[in-house]
Write a structure and sequence with these properties.
Mean pLDDT: 95
Strand content: 15-25%
Shape: globular
Low-confidence stretches: none
CATH architecture of the domain at 264-352: 2-Layer Sandwich
Order of helices and strands: HHHHHEHEHHEEEHEEEHEEH
Bound molecules: arginine
CATH class of the domain at 264-352: Alpha Beta
Number of helices: 11
Radius of gyration: 21 Å
């Protein structure tokens, strides 16, 4: 793919930003500043510095989505496979769904997260140190006032020494500085300042503060009871939403730093052990595609699959409700488990 003359995208880049940022669009948008002072040049820096970007653009505040709409909208419509007339679909109701793997023969753990940002602050790549601290203060106040059954503790990374931080990391209770894509977008700036994690007393809910998004609200638990994980997540989202003003647009849904996350901003997935389907990846890919799911590596985005443990999650976030995402995941996992079970039994008892 060749870049438009004049735009500094690498010849090898296949990013969406390179595909959709025509020279005319660039010239029309390059002087624009959002209310928090964010420019198109800042938004696309990561895509320019990282030719292997898939998308290559980040929003610097909620207004970026309107200011840079001529380039962001086609990217969003392409990435999320949207039909004309698309719109965010609300729908965040607790569900009853059977546990697909009560004996935990396949599903190791279930994890659902949503990203949320506070409308009145610039987004993560565009924050000053004071703004990060102010955001942390606002969110800490909300954590302190949660209903009893959701309550927990907040740990600021700046309050920890290296040993304590690594102990948390090992338990999956901290997050590191982000990758080079986030780095070029300014998201890692001043790390670990203002960063931290809230953990609920039962350990199911975690909230990352000041990572790629202001908040990543996460519910996770061993095993495959995704309905229970989803219901716990909803309670937390609602409780925090009562206290904080989330960046939201009726058409685009919840607004996030990366345009891949807007809409429900939800990723619902499992770690699942598929020793047989690993030998038949094209079959696994067909099932996941049919159920609108995606496969990631064991360690998450841009990592490899290790020891046949796949990370399988929803591929769609915008244009369908969170409840539909969960239904797709449940149906898809049922099909995957059936296929894996069938090929395990073909190998005969004790052999698979
Ligand atoms: N900016 C990176 C790219 O374009 C990541 C995109 C999606 N991932 C994310 N964590 N937002 O490939």
């Amino acid at each position: 793919m060749t870049a438009e003359p004049g735009l500094p995208f690498h010849v090898t880049s296949c990013s969406k930003i390179k595909q959709y940022l025509t020279l005319k669009r660039y010239n029309d948008l390059k002087e624009i500043r959002t209310p928090s002072g964010y420019s198109l040049d800042q938004a696309i820096r990561s895509g320019i510095e990282n030719p292997d970007s898939n998308i290559g653009i980040y929003a610097g505040d909620m207004e970026s989505y309107d200011c840079f709409a001529p380039v962001l909208l086609p990217i969003i419509e392409d990435y999320h496979h949207l039909d004309p007339g698309w719109s965010h679909k609300p729908g965040l109701q607790e569900v009853v769904l059977p546990d697909l793997d009560p004996e935990q023969r396949f599903i190791r753990s279930s994890r659902i997260r949503v990203a949320r940002n506070l409308g009145k602050f610039p987004f993560s790549g565009n924050m000053t140190p004071d703004q990060r601290l102010e955001l942390e203060k606002t969110v800490k106040h909300a954590f302190r006032n949660l209903p009893e059954k959701l309550s927990g503790t907040y740990t600021a990374f700046t309050d920890l020494n290296e040993k304590q931080f690594h102990a948390l990391l090992k338990k999956g209770l901290a997050f590191r500085k982000g990758d080079r894509f986030m780095d070029a977008a300014g998201i890692n700036r001043d790390y670990p300042l203002g960063r931290g994690i809230f953990t609920s007393r039962d350990n199911i809910i975690r909230v990352w503060v000041n990572e790629e998004d202001h908040l990543r609200i996460i519910a996770q638990s061993p095993g495959g009871d995704i309905a229970n994980v989803f219901n716990r997540l909803i309670q937390m989202i609602k409780a925090l939403g009562d206290k904080l003003d989330f960046a939201f647009d009726p058409k685009k849904g919840f607004l996030t730093t990366c345009p891949t996350n807007i809409g429900t901003a939800m990723r619902a997935g499992v770690h699942i052990h598929l020793e047989k389907l690993e030998q038949n990846l094209s079959f696994l890919e067909t099932i996941t595609r049919d159920h609108h799911l995606q496969i990631r590596g064991t360690g998450g985005e841009k990592t490899a699959v290790e020891k046949a443990v796949f990370d399988i999650s929803n591929a769609r976030r915008l244009g369908i409700s969170a409840n539909t995402i969960l239904k797709d995941l449940h149906g898809g996992l049922q099909a995957i488990i059936q296929a894996e079970q069938k090929s395990r039994s073909f190998s005969g008892p004790g052999l698979g």
